[in-house]
Every structure is written in structure tokens, then in C-alpha cells.
Amino acid sequence: KLEDYNKNIILPHEETLPKAKEDRLNLMRQCLANFSPIFGLYIDKEKNEEEIFKKLNTIQADMNFVDENGQSHKVWAVNDPDVIQKFQSLLKDKQIFIADGHHRYETALQFSREMGSENANYAMMTLVNIYDSGLVIFPTHRLLKNLKDFETDKFLNSLKQHYETESVLFDELDNENTLPAAAEKIRKALEANSVQFHRFGIYLGGKYVHFINVPKGNKLPADPNKSQAWNSLDVTVLQKMVLEKFLGIGEKERKEGSFLKYVRDEVEALLDVQKGICQAALLVNPTKIDEVIAVAKSGEKMPQKSTYFYPKLITGLVINSLV
Q: Taking a C-beta distance cutoff of 8 angstroms, is the pair 72, 80 a contact?
């Protein structure tokens, strides 16, 4: 059932973009249905759901297929009232943290207000225990585009004046066929020293990646009006202390969506810079699940596209009618 955020039952962790919500709202108005489930998380250290659903492993799935990416998907329709009741009881007093689908959830709230019908008061949601061993968070990298008078040397020199920097040569960046190998090395280099520093990789083309280290626990927080949980995030430090401070990409510019592109795949990010599609790639480490929960519980939201939860269910696999 849809609940307003202020009830503290379903909690967001990420800011949303007006244009994306407008697009989804128009889709709901025309189709009167949900096609894609919101990705929700709950906390259960004991992993009770494994016991509740263990019988499913012995039953043939109602749907079983492999998608175009070679990933398998299985769906069971659970009709046993006892199993349903046990799962309802498990979730009865738990908060749900939105992992993915903030735009869909907020759009569903708006749509329910417009419709005023019982069906529209509900939304399709996938619920996953945060302690599920298969749950993964990938980073979402930022790419710069459409910036007037953007000078790579000037940008890099500004960063060097304020933060510890390290320029590392990756010969694999010289050939498109070896970009996956370069991406793997860059991921490992990003992770190095990430306990001590908020660490970012800046790719401006060529064969060098410039790593920026901002000490964690800085006496000057990225935003003194925000909680420690919010200020401890790599993405918020990047947003406030790089994008806003040196490039003037603030809240207004992010909402307009003209200057930033978000990608999960490092190879795509590197290629976009090499091909001149984007001016620079700002590569980040993934946000940790405990950081997501801490920010949500503090009542705050991360910058847009702070997380990429995986795996995701295919859109259109299950359709929920809203009429």
C-alpha cells in the first residue's frame, strides 16, 4: 500500500528529477497499470524469508527463461495462504527502504491522489532482505557534458590546489579492445585507500586517470546543515566539493539535467570521453548498503543516481492493473 514518506513506513534515500516523474505519470495516466516493480529493501538479520519460501526450490517455476543478456529469470506465483500469512507477519512492523524506483513510487503517490480509487492506492513492489547474499550495489558514475568554456587543465589544476591528487598511466586506455581491462584496473585503483579517503577518478581522455583523495572525517563537512551519515557519502562529497565548488553544477543544474550523464558501466564512461560525447568522466566507488540505510533513517536523501541496486526484475514480466 502506498504511504506518504512522513509516515516513516516507506523511506526514500535518493533525490528525484521532475522530468522523469512527469514522463512516468503520463505513462500511468495512459496505461492505467504498473509495468515495473519498485525495488524495496527490509531488514531481517535472521533471514526468516528463506525458511518461509524454501518449498519454492522444490516446485517448478511458473515462468522460467533466459533474457538477451544471458541472465536467467524464474517466477513463482505463491497461492498458499499459510506462506502468504507468514511473510505478511514478517513484514508487519518493518520499514521498507526504496532501493530503486523513487521516481515510480512518487509518481504512484501522485497518481493515487488523482484517481482516488482503491486499486490506485497500491503499487507493485519487489521486497528483498538487505542481508540477502545476492544483493549487489554498483556505482553510478558522472559524466560532464555541455559545459561552456570547460578547460581540462584548468579543472585539474583547481583540484590539485585543494586535494591530494595522483595521476596514473593505464596503457590499456589506448585501445578500445583493451578498455575492459583498463576499467578493471581503474576499479581496483579506486578501491585502494577508500577506507581513509573519499576517492574519485577523473578521466579527461588520453591514457591517464587522475585520482582525487579527500580525507574522510573532514572537519569541514560537505554540507554543515546535513547529518554525519549524509556527509560521509562519497557521492555527496563529490557533489558539493567538486561539482558545485569547481563547476557550478548545483541543485538547479542537476534538476535540469543538461550537464550530467549517469552511467554504471566504466567502459561506456571511458568511451564517451574518448569519442567526445562527454567532456570528462568522474568515476566513483559504490555506495555501501549500511550507508543507504543510515541516510534513509536520518530522514535525508542522497543525490540523484547515488546507487544502482542489482539484480533487477525485468519490466513487463508482471503487470498490475490500476483500474
A: no
Rounded Cα distance, 13 and 258, in Å: 23
Q: Per residue in 284-305, is it b (16+ CB within 10 Å) or e — as a string?
A: bbbbebebbbbbbeeebbbbbb
pLDDT digit of tens for each residue in the chain (323 aa)?
999 999 999 998 888 888 889 999 999 999 999 999 999 999 999 999 999 998 888 899 999 999 998 889 999 999 999 999 999 999 999 999 998 899 999 999 999 999 988 999 999 999 999 999 889 999 999 999 999 989 999 999 999 999 999 999 999 999 999 999 999 999 999 999 888 899 999 999 999 999 999 988 766 677 888 888 888 999 999 999 999 999 988 878 887 778 999 999 999 999 999 999 999 999 999 998 888 888 888 888 888 888 888 888 888 889 999 98
Question: Can you tell me the distance from the alpha carbon of 48 to that of 104, in angstroms, rounded to the nearest whole number?
Answer: 28
Alpha-carbon torsion (114, 300, 233, 147), positive or negative? positive
Nearest one of 138, 157, 312, 151 to 235, comparing CA atoms: 138
Angle between helices 102-115 and 18-31 (to 10 degrees): 50
Q: Which residues contact 239 (CB under 8 A, 6 or more apart)?
A: 222, 303
Closest of 315, 323, 322, 318 to residue 67, by C-alpha: 315
Contacts of residue 153, defined as CB under 8 A and 6 or more positions apart, other chains included, come to: none
What global pTM score does this model have? 0.79
Q: How is 169-225 classified by DSSP, letter by letter?
A: E-GGGG-GGGHHHHHHHHHHHHHTTTTTEEEEEEE-STTEEEEEEEETT-SS-S-TT
Query: Whose CA is closest to 104, among 6, 34, 166, 52?
Result: 34
Cell of 169: 598511466
Q: Who's near 303: CB < 8 A, 6+ residues apart? A: 14, 15, 235, 236, 239, 254
The letter for the amino acid at 161 is: Q
